[in-house]
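FORM 7B - TANDEM STRUCTURE REPORT

SECTION 1: FIRST PROTEIN
SEQUENCE AND TOKENS:
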Amino acid sequence: MEANPDLCLTVRDSESDEAQSASSSLTDTLSPSSDNDLFSRHSRDRPVHNFRDGNPPTTVFSEAEAAKEMVENALVMKPGGQDVLEVYKSEKSLNHRTRRQLVNILASHMTEMRGRIPSRKQKEKYALGIITLFPSLKDPFSPKGYEHFYDGEKGTGYLAWRLKTMSRNKSQRPVKATTVPQAQGPNRRRSVASVPEQLDGDACQEAISLLLHCHDEPSVFKKMKMTFEHRQNLVHDSQRTTDVLKTFPRLLDVKGPLNQDFVLLFGEETSSRLLEKWDTTFKPKVIEESKHLTKSTELHRLLNAAEKHAEDDDTNWDSDVASLLLLLHLLPPTAGRKRINISASDAEDKMVHFHKSCCSIDEHLRGTEGKQPHILAVGRAQKRIDTFYIVVDKQLIPCQATRSLGAFDELFKSHYVFSLSYDESLVHFYTFVQTTVYSTDITTTDESPRVREFRAKLFNSVKCLNV
């Protein structure tokens, strides 16, 4: 002390420090959280950063802000960019035209600033800047929220596609190593933990033989449940998948085994999601979003039916079918492997087909192609359906449901029960229903940017978040 007269000592109370630390820890532990909204089950899977002062590190904050500033500056300096900013300011979202304009501007800016082939990190920075500047474009179901603009793991997204288009004929691109695609969605083989006791060997064959002649429904349901694994082995064996309806013919005349198999695969909670959530959570927003599509006679007819403005028109579908078809128009087909374009209106018949009850059903079955299932609605008029069937491989499976929404529920489930891939023209439509409505295989399914973009628009709407 005498040698250092300017030295200052501070005396601290250790008990006070411990109390302060305990108080801070208690505050962190008791931070309020909500698990009541639609997205809680997805947000629980994301990494949680517990910052003691309540704020993220400066680096995390500055990275997003720097990306936001970069994107905003690019839009301000480029022709058409100010239009994008003004549209978002007035509508709190971007339509397809302004979204394409945004991507074109940023892809052009990226190549000017970063060269013809920007790095993955640079593309991710632009994607981060987009959702930071335009929060309603963030997808709440994907890990980073911007994968529909750029997914670094798969090299896909609007920015990636635009950059590929710009450089397609300029020089030879490096050849990527081919990878074997993994089975997804309905084609994925699943391990079922809670399946009841299963029969094998002679006992299984005996039960199958009994089912060939048994028409007592309680016995049918019991034996079908006990032979579930054998049925799964059949549908996942490419050499024997067509035998399942011959081996288990009660699927063709007893209503309900299809639903039972789906419940064994996924459980009651997943099985009931469409019927519980469509009318309240999804249908109103689908109708609202459809009003922004380019008007056509078909679209006008579906909107009237969905909103029940044409109650006396028996030539139109009921409100539930109309709303599902509007979703198909919002997520229309794209050119598939055969590069054949098909419109949303043409694709409707691949999901649901009306058949007058006075006409022969066999004629319709003979005209069907492929194994992909669809609904056959039989009745006197489109709005007066008496019976719903699922058509699979030219065979009729009677629906347990008496409402059109229930029939669609069974149609979707039939893909999983029989391990049938989605029809190529309905892939975007069914993928949205799978990941967003039923909440299955969200992290393992390849979703198109169009699906993610639509989901972001749907769930960042104030109306939908308040459901």
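SECTION 2: SECOND PROTEIN
SEQUENCE AND TOKENS:
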Amino acid sequence: YTVFVFETVQTILCGVDVSYWFFTGYGNLIKLSNPYISAFDGPMMIVVISVIVQWFFCYQIYSLSKSWWLASLIAAVCICL
């Protein structure tokens, strides 16, 4: 349910950005150049969601193979990339 909550929050933040740019700033081109909160909801939320999902799959690999070194190697590669 954690990923669902993060995705819902990201969707709400994206809607807030759209309403800021197009509803409250209708006709104001300066508001279009202001990123508002899209600098947070874009990159930061995507990083959090992708790390959670990748660690879940690392846990699944560990559960199937019972190999800590393989799961740790994959988790380290996921963090570094």
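SECTION 3: OBSERVATIONS ON SECOND PROTEIN
The CA atoms of residues 45 and 56 lie 17 Å apart.
The two ends are 25 Å apart (CA to CA).

SECTION 4: SIGNATURE
Preparer initials: ____
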